[in-house]
Amino acid sequence: MSKRRFLKVFAAVLSMVALIVLVWGCRPFVDRQAIASNPVPVASAPMTAEHAGRLVTWIEKEADGIEAFIAVRDGKVLLSHGAVDLPMSLASVRKSVLSLLFGIAWDRGLIDLDATLAELGIDEGAIPLTETEKLATIEQLLQSRSGVYLHSGAETVENKDGRPRRGQFLPGEHYFYNNWDFNVLGAIFEQQAGIPIGEALDSWLAVPLGMQDFHASHVLYDSRGSDSDFRTYRIHMSARDLARLGVLVQQDGLWGRERIVSKQWLDRSTTPYSVPDSPFYDGFGYSWWLNSELNAVLADGWGGQYLLIDRDHDLVLVTRRDNGNSILGYLVSSQLKPEGHPADIQKLDAMIRDMVATPVQ
Asked: Which keywords does the record carry (predicted)?
């Protein structure tokens, strides 16, 4: 083959490979248009135009990475701004959502919090657990105090760099925000409850709460990034549907007159068992963040996924940034868009507290 022909063939093959990579990179993670099982609009009690204008101006000019915002008070929408109906990846907010599912399963007698990894048959193929590590309980995993320090999927740099040495702490002895714990909890939930996370979310929460955008197919599983046997479960949910979960927690597990999850579980899961090294949170419960100064329960996800439940003022706030619905979208988002920040949702909470306490003059 002549050099000229070789270069033509090489260019054609390279173009084909680039096209395949582009198509693969643009393939959507979830169908954002999938129809919810029982969509029911939430009642609205809008704040004044002046107050709403102040908040929107602050979001657009002062805050970072907020593409959807919703505020709910007394179960009614105060303000909705941006793409609140768009299912986006929850990132680590998934862990707080799974905690709610564990609560429902616990209420139904499907989960024993004292069950150990050994009793549940949990082990790793590539790097087997030690007998001591197998003594970790479901409760300790929910608290991120398992004492199992193995690499897992969806880890941040802080996870990797801050991980204790294997065997450094016994189960229950030390708090470390550990994706291994959270990913294993996804597998344990499905094993013990006998239902996939997506189906449980749909039938146990989305349907009774009337979620408008969630579909069972919005829960994905990802094995990339580690040799662990336990996949990362990823949940996509809209801001307005996530706000419903916040209202459920705010209302001690009641939705209208229906009991969805017990107050006993919510009290346990929002009790601080550890003090994280964070300027924004001073407690960690069963996969929920806590701020005692605000008397708030929070969920926090990479990129700008935040849920704040202000118990003293019956407020629920959600801020979201779209991290992309494809590999390419994720790469573009992570490199080109500013990340959200927990300080912003706490500032919005403070602003709304003042507004609802002080009428417009």
From this structure: Hydrolase
Q: What is the pLDDT of residue 230?
A: 97
* Cβ pair 143, 285 in contact under 8 A: yes
Question: Which of the four pLDDT bands, split at 50, 70 and 90, describes residue 7?
Answer: low
| Domain boundaries of the chain, sorted by first residue | 49-357
Mean pLDDT of the 99-105 span: 98
Res 21 pLDDT > 50: no
Is pLDDT at 4 greater than 80 in this prediction?
A: no
For 49-357, CATH number out of 3.40.50.1240, 3.40.710.10, 2.60.120.10, 3.10.20.30 equals 3.40.710.10
CA distance 324 to 29: 9
- Rounded to two decimals, what is the model's pTM? 0.93
In whole angstroms, what is the distance from residue 65 CA to residue 230 CA? 31
As a whole number of angstroms, the distance between CA 207 and CA 227 comes to 35
Would you state the structure tokens that stand for residue 233, as one six-digit string? 């479960």
CA 224 to chain centre: 18
pLDDT exceeds cutoff 70 at 105: yes
State residue 342's pLDDT score: 96
